[in-house]
Amino acid sequence: MAGAQTFPVRAASSQPASAVTPLAQIKIGRFTVTALSDGYADMPYGYFPSRTPEQVETAAKAQFTARSSGVRFLFNQYLVEDGSSRILIDAGPAGTLGQTGYLPQALVARGLSPDQIDAVIVTHMHQDHLGGLVTGGRRVFPNAEVYVDRRDIAHWTDAGKQAAAPDYLQASFRLSADLVRLYPKLQATQGDHQIARGVSLVDLAGHTPGHIGVRIEDGGQSLIMVSDMLFPVVHPAMGTDVNFLMEADRPAAQAMRARFFPRAAEEGVLIAATHMPFPGLGRIVSDQGRLAWHVADWAYQD
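The structure assignment produced for this chain is given below.
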């Protein structure tokens, strides 16, 4: 066509798609929040008590996300920066589960090294949230203050509870012991607690005894990172009563969701969730009386 503009064609990359490091950013007032990923693992359809594996798989098929190996869990971490400090929320499983261990390269893609992180908030002491702090039995974030709820510390360092725990929780006990040993100045909090201006811990106990979320707020904007409050495929559409195999107190976790989901839908609160599809940002919305997960816009913000 006469006068048509032509564009240069780039050669196809020789790297596989899995080599691309995903990053996503949003602004919350003065804060820049960057979603990072340590990778993923597939959870068998039978890992969701109160629903049959067939029911969970059917829901996954309806959402076009079904895999032969189960429900895909992402491991999203969130870097919170305000120009004076860098706070990382969770550190991923670091190769101890599934296809993981990519957080270090995600930080490099952001132009950062672990020694530039000022604080790490551990939302709870399951291996997929703290593993990256103690990879290889070393202190990965040497200059970071680490915040963990004291109820989780008490639970995951209790030898009696470890002895009675099933095999699938043993790694969490071992890694928790490493965390306490390698970070002797661990900041033990409890429940709701402000750790910096605009950064607060939120009590979401149930999934573990000291399960917490993180609220980021500034300039009339806010984001709440809810960690393992909700899971892909099953939440919120299948109901607040759908638990997960590793939940410590299933009735408490269910009650927390029953309070949180309707209120989040009413208020339109922006949510970040560890295991939802990357970047894990969305809202719970009410669609003709049924609750659903609605992915939030994050790119090309004004």
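Interim note for the steering committee: The chain has a mean pLDDT of 93. The longest helix spans residues 250-267.
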